[in-house]
Amino acid sequence: MSLKIEIKPGEKFVVNGAVIVAGKNGASLVLQNKAVLLREKDIMQEVDANTPARHIYFTVMLMYLDAENHETYHQKFVGFLEEYLNATTLPHVRRSLLVIHNEVSGRRFYQALKLCKALVEFETELFEKTPALAERTGT
Fold first, then answer.
1. Which of 14, 48, 63, 129 has the smallest set of CB atoms within 10 Å of its CB?
2. Long-range contacts of range 117-126, CB-CB < 8 Å, 24 or more positions apart?
3. pLDDT tens string 22-57
């Protein structure tokens, strides 16, 4: 099963560890086999991993991009996941964290990243509605 994606002009993306930049006209890519692909908009820098959900997203992203060092990142992921589970009583968040854990355990990192992204968005909305909470997390 192939995957077709449209890349915008100048957009960066990673394919199997190689950082690629689309030309001035953009690109249309068709991946014919399994590959690790991540678009610029989905790449998080370590400095931006500054909330519980972002810590989890960042470590899952590293497991996805750098399979050789999976175990190192997985240990950090488990620690961040446990911290978040212990800190929240929100059923929606707890369920999301458990599903993310299941996806990571099955080495379905891209699916886990999509779930993490939704959790980051929820967390951002929550922080916007509750400024005192954002101050406690340093965001």
1. 129
2. 117/42, 117/57, 119/53, 119/56, 119/57, 119/93, 120/51, 120/53, 120/54, 120/57, 122/53, 122/92, 122/93, 122/96, 123/51, 123/52, 123/53, 123/54
3. 888 888 888 888 888 999 999 999 999 999 999 999
CB atoms within 10 A of CB 61: 23
State phi, psi for 87 to the nearest 5 degrees: -95, -15
Residue 60 has pLDDT above 90, yes or no: yes
Inter-helix orientation angle 52-65/91-105, to 10° = 10
Q: Where are the domains of the chain?
A: 3-41, 44-137
Residue found under tokens 């080495």: 107
- Taking the C-alpha atoms of residue 26 and residue 22, their distance in angstroms, rounded to an integer, is 5
Instruction: Specify the residue for token string 């960042």.
Output: 58
Assess contact for 77 and 105: CB atoms under 8 A.
no
